[in-house]
């Protein structure tokens, strides 16, 4: 699933291509909005909110989309061939005299009144890349459920918006604790660092084509996707196990030497203690 920095980049590309321009083509390929026609309206802006995209359109309308695992918005100069996937995967087309934005495999696409945006994003916690960022509130949200494993709490967008599975693993490594450590057991000094560190990572990567948390060329991440290769710090093989986020199990990476705290027993099934759905 795209994380906050990836969605921020998508919003930036869409804003550059569409904002301030009149739509000459509009095609929403979902049954509920199949007859909606946005042509003749000016796109006002495209704003990211956590992992959500809000395309605001003249006349008090907002096109809300979410990429989830496989969705993507592609931008094409008019006259160029589209290359984001087969035609049957297209869910939205927004075009002007210069460019066309094509939404592929969008699992969430809805047209709503702009004053009603809170209905779809009002549940989100402080946005790591947004103007509403509030580190104290984000930390308070995380600590509100002290028995919950930190990795699950970080993925819950109601606590803070923008962290996905990659940053979950990388943050826990940089804090020196495992993703299975209960939030309430997080040492106070590390808890105090967490919001600023999360924001620093996402801000550092929002304009980069390749995400990195290490600062090392060719070795972009400390743990995510690296099992069973050696830890970049201590050489211990990185491990991987599934961890629930309330909606599905996610592969979770950690170094058994550099990170302290509970871990799944070898061969044990993934924990399913917390079954609250984690809103996106």
UniProtKB/TrEMBL annotation:
Domain of life: Bacteria
Keyword Transmembrane among record annotations: no
Pfam families membership: Fapy_DNA_glyco, H2TH
Keywords: DNA damage, DNA repair, DNA-binding, Glycosidase, Hydrolase, Lyase, Metal-binding, Multifunctional enzyme, Zinc, Zinc-finger
Enzyme Commission code: 4.2.99.18
Residue ranges, annotated region (Disordered): 240-280
Ranges for domain FPG-type: 222-260
Catalytic reaction equation(s): 2'-deoxyribonucleotide-(2'-deoxyribose 5'-phosphate)-2'-deoxyribonucleotide-DNA = a 3'-end 2'-deoxyribonucleotide-(2,3-dehydro-2,3-deoxyribose 5'-phosphate)-DNA + a 5'-end 5'-phospho-2'-deoxyribonucleoside-DNA + H(+)
Protein name as annotated: DNA-(apurinic or apyrimidinic site) lyase
